[in-house]
């Protein structure tokens, strides 16, 4: 077994077991923290498909995260008020929220991807940012679902066989999603599609010269990436029982990128490591000082300047390229 | 005479005031190596890029296997069987030699939209890829990352990729450039076998290689074909000698 | 709707555009010469406003505040370049985005530490208070006209700097070929520090001038930063001329859209609904423009190098 696999398994087992140990020891709050880690990791795994495998530096993934969040919020609020959504009585169920969030995010990703994937480099970074801002301002100004104030979720959507009001159940659902998404990412990376996607990142001209069009490969990757991030957004809204335009803000996009870099670009479990470090820093520094963002900034800077491989690079050595 | 695999008629490309290719006519027939020679800036690379589809064509036509491909993109032409190598070797640097060739195999199979099954032990990709590495003599380097290969090895890797595409014609842009005498000799031998697989359009500065390999030679000057014919005739042609070969050749 | 209202809003749009130009000019120069995306450019804008407001409150003079903010942001820019940015040239854009994102966190929290979390206020200098009557009987604030004039002066100054001076020649050389200026024997590190400090001072100037129109507080830089990015993407990254055209375009479309769209919609769907929907669409309008420009010209209106 490679060192990367060992590190990955230890990380995942730790994430699964530690919150229950903490709960048993009388620190139930860690369950919420672990749920937050799992959800942010799912979002970052989604982004990692576009960014890590495809080299598509999307600075607008908050849009998909927020769309997922609003899907959960809107369904919950309609169910609460007994209103129909577009003429349908939509059940207040998590899988339905995921599905709607994925569909909506996928559609937005197709439209924005068709335009933004025509560009590359800085232009791609900026245009994805601009599309996300467009949706952010739309959410702020659109009064139907709370506008700037956001939307509270009075009662979480349900999940078959689980009591989503109970923190440990919510954590287990989030953790299960994380496992599914990691499995998907791992299979995708080694698949033929993954090979074409990673090749297009490294040498677009060569990929075309062997007869594979890079554009549709990238578009599919962008859409898959958006859909996974949307599911994470839906869970994030469930966890906080609240969704607001701040989920769509550009700093959220920045944080998702930070998670990936912290963990290690393109590594399967990189986002989990990244989310782990990020949430711990946020919590630990936040407890030490009000100025925690100052120190987070310093640490980030140090990581970018001095440890380009991210945390997985430190723990598991250089990424294997073959 | 056999029918032309690649047929170029009246091809032009203009960059501002410069005519990079000016009414170029060219034919590539089965079983032959057709060399394209000429001084730097004569339009050889422009012509190769027009044929492979990187550059568009202002006027004229490119017919490949009896079909007009002038309006097709790079990838579509590659799928029809135009196998190309680049003036500066172009491979996927982080992939091993084997995975570079596997990419071409999956392209030929049209299976790039498979998301779940791993390629790591997929015999339908690995076996054909390995065969082509063997053909160019890179079998022992299969697991080496392309970025770590020598210049000459990357040249051969590009040819293995073109072979894996099941190319119906090879477009080779200065394959000998930067190779030492040993490398040039090995590649010359490889190319002379390759012509039996598919005809080769060869841009090359190494005149020894050109005249030992080519059946047919066209000379390009300022975007125009100033002479074209069997290699022996071109070697004797007075205009070519003064224009390019420099009298003493 | 009266023509005088349209004229007034048009001027507001130009004023906003000119302010965006000051931000965008620095961003686009820094990208053009050093190939760097600088997310922390908005923090320099914030620093300019904070320094100006603080110094003006101490001394009672807006002008001293403005001078202090120009010097302060140029110095801050030079310091940041030497300490951090210098290590990012030649790194890929992802590293640059992340490192300058970290700089935002550091500078924002640092500013909160130094200046507090409360909004500061900056008065318009007495010489520029009051309004001017324009043709058509519109009374328009003198201070806003002064911002427009100052911005256009900077635009002319930048044009002269880049086209007529030795420094400008080096900047142009740096844009076309980074290795060439090394061969010319130009001290590249010095040139880069100067360009970064110049961009920082322009951002600081914009912040200081706008500080008298709105409250000055931490976080004021990021919304402007994003608009400045929209500007340089529309204009063509690396092109100062593109930044000017893009800035005016974005300034005018954004300002006019917010006024005109709700009014136009009101005629169709009634005023109550129109206010909300109009505002929603108006705030998206510049992003729609940007998407359209990029869909037609993926390298912006004035691609660098033309």
What descriptive keywords fit this protein?
heterotrimer; A: 322 residues; mainly alpha; two-stranded antiparallel ribbon; 13 helices; 1% strand; globular; B: 249 residues; alpha/beta; Rossmann fold; 6-stranded mixed sheet; 4-stranded antiparallel sheet
Number of strands of chain C: 2
Helix and strand content put the structural class of chain C at mainly alpha
In order across it, which strands form the biggest sheet of chain A?
1-2
**Overall pLDDT metric of chain C:** 86
- Sheet/helix structural class of chain A: mainly alpha
- How many structural domains are formed by the residues of chain A? 1
CATH architecture of chain C: Orthogonal Bundle
Largest sheet of chain A: 2 strands, antiparallel
| Helix-strand sequence of chain C | HHHHEEHHHHHHH
Percentage of helical residues of chain A? over 70%
Question: For the CA atoms, what is the radius of gyration of chain C?
Answer: 20 Å
Polypeptide structure, described:
The complex is a heterotrimer of chains A (322), B (249) and C (306). Chain A is 72% helix and 1% strand. Chain A has a two-stranded antiparallel ribbon. In chain A, helix 2 packs parallel to helix 6, helix 2 packs across helix 10 and helix 3 crosses helix 9. The two termini of chain A are 17 Å apart. Chain B has 249 residues and is of the alpha/beta class. Chain B folds into 2 domains: 164 residues, Rossmann fold (3-Layer(aba) Sandwich); 70 residues, no CATH class. In chain B, the strands form 2 sheets. A 6-stranded mixed beta sheet of chain B has the order 6-7-8-3-9-10, with helices on both faces. Chain B has a 4-stranded antiparallel beta sheet with strand order 2-1-4-5, with helices on one face. In chain B, strand 1 and strand 2 form a beta hairpin. In chain B, helix 3 runs parallel beside helix 5 and helix 4 packs across helix 5. Chain C has 306 residues and is mainly alpha-helical. Chain C has one domain: ABC transporter involved in vitamin B12 uptake, BtuC, CATH 1.10.3470. Chain C has 11 helices and 2 strands, in the order ααααββααααααα. Chain C has a two-stranded antiparallel ribbon with strand order 1-2. In chain C, a hairpin with a 3-residue loop joins strand 1 and strand 2. The relative contact order of chain C is 0.19. At the A-C interface, helix 5, helix 10 and helix 12 of A face helix 4, helix 9 and helix 11 of C.
């Amino acid at each position: 077994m490679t060192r990367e696999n060992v590190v990955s398994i230890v990380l995942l087992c730790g994430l699964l077991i530690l919150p229950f140990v903490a709960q048993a020891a009388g620190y139930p709050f860690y369950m919420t923290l672990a749920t937050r880690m799992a959800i942010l990791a799912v979002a970052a795994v989604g982004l990692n498909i576009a960014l890590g495998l495809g080299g598509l530096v999307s600075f607008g993934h908050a849009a998909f995260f927020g769309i997922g969040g609003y899907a959960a919020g809107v369904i919950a609020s309609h169910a609460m008020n007994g209103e129909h959504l577009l003429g349908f009585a939509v059940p207040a169920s998590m899988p339905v929220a995921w599905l709607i969030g994925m569909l909506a995010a996928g559609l937005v990703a197709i439209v924005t991807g068709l335009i933004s994937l025509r560009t590359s480099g800085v232009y791609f970074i900026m245009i994805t940012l601009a599309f996300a801002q467009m949706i952010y301002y739309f959410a702020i100004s659109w009064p139907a679902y709370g506008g700037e104030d956001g939307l509270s979720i009075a009662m979480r959507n349900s999940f078959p066989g689980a009591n989503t009001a109970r923190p440990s159940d919510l954590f287990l659902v989030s953790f299960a999603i994380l496992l599914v998404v990691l499995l998907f990412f791992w299979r995708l990376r080694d698949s033929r599609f993954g090979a074409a996607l990673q090749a297009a990142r490294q040498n677009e001209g060569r990929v075309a010269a062997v007869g594979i069009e890079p554009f549709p490969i990238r578009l599919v990757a962008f859409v898959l990436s958006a859909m996974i991030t949307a599911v994470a957004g839906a869970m994030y809204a469930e966890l906080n029982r609240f969704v607001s335009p701040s989920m769509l803000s550009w700093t959220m996009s920045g944080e998702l990128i930070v998670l990936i870099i912290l963990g290690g670009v393109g590594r399967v479990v990189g986002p989990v490591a990244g989310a782990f470090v990020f949430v711990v820093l946020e919590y630990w520094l936040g407890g030490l000082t009000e100025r925690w963002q100052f120190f987070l900034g310093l640490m980030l800077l140090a990581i970018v300047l001095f440890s380009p491989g991210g945390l997985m690079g430190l723990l598991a050595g250089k990424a294997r390229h073959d | 005479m056999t029918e032309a695999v690649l047929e170029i008629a009246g091809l032009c490309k203009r960059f501002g005031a410069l005519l990079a290719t000016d009414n170029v006519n060219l034919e590539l027939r089965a079983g032959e190596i057709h060399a394209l020679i000429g001084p730097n800036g004569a339009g050889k690379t422009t012509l190769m890029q027009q044929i492979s589809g990187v550059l568009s064509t202002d006027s004229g036509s490119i017919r490949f296997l009896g079909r007009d491909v002038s309006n097709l993109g790079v990838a579509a032409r590659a799928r029809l069987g135009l196998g190309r190598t680049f003036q500066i070797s172009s491979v996927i640097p982080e992939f091993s030699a084997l995975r570079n060739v596997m990419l071409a195999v999956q392209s030929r199979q049209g299976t790039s939209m498979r998301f779940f099954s791993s390629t790591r032990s997929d015999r339908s990709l690995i076996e054909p890829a390995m065969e082509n590495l063997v053909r160019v003599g890179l079998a022992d380097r299969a697991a080496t990352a392309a970025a770590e290969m020598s210049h000459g090895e990357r040249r051969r890797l590009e040819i293995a990729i073109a072979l894996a595409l099941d190319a119906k014609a090879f477009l080779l842009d200065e394959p000998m450039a930067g190779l030492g005498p040993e490398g040039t000799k090995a590649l010359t031998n490889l190319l002379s076998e390759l012509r039996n697989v598919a005809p080769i359009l060869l841009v090359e500065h190494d005149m020894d290689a050109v005249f030992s390999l080519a059946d047919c030679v066209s000379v390009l000057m300022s975007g125009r074909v100033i002479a074209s014919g069997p290699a022996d005739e071109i070697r004797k042609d007075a205009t070519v000698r003064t224009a390019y070969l420099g009298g003493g050749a | 709707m009266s023509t005088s209202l349209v004229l007034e809003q048009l001027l507001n749009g130009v004023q906003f555009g000119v302010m965006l130009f000051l931000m965008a000019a620095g961003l686009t120069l820094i990208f053009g010469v050093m190939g760097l995306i600088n997310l922390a450019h908005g923090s320099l804008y914030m620093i300019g406003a904070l320094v100006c407001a603080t110094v003006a409150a101490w001394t009672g003079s807006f002008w001293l505040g403005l001078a202090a903010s120009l010097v302060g942001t140029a110095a801050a820019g030079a310091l940041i370049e030497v300490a951090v940015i210098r290590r990012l040239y030649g790194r890929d854009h992802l590293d640059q985005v992340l490192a300058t994102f970290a700089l935002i966190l550091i500078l924002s929290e640092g500013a909160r530490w130094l200046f507090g979390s409360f909004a500061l206020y900056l008065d318009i200098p007495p010489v520029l208070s009051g309004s001017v009557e324009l043709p058509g009987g519109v009374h328009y604030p003198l201070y806003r006209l002064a911002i427009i004039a100052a911005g256009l002066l900077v635009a002319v100054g930048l044009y002269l700097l880049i086209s007529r001076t030795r420094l400008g020649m080096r900047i142009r050389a740096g844009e076309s070929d980074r290795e060439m200026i090394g061969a010319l024997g130009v001290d590249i590190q010095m040139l880069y520090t100067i360009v970064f400090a110049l961009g920082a001072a322009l951002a600081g100037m914009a912040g200081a001038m706008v500080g008298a129109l709105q409250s000055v507080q931490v976080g004021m830089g990021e919304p402007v930063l994003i608009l400045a990015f929209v500007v340089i993407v529309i204009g063509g990254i690396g092109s100062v001329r593109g930044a000017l055209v893009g800035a005016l375009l974005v300034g005018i479309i954004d300002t006019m859209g917010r006024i005109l769209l709700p009014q136009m919609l009101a005629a169709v769907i009634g005023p109550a609904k129109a206010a909300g929907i109009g505002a929603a669409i108006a705030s998206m309008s510049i992003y729609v423009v940007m998407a359209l420009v990029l869909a037609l010209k993926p390298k912006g209106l004035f691609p660098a190098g033309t």
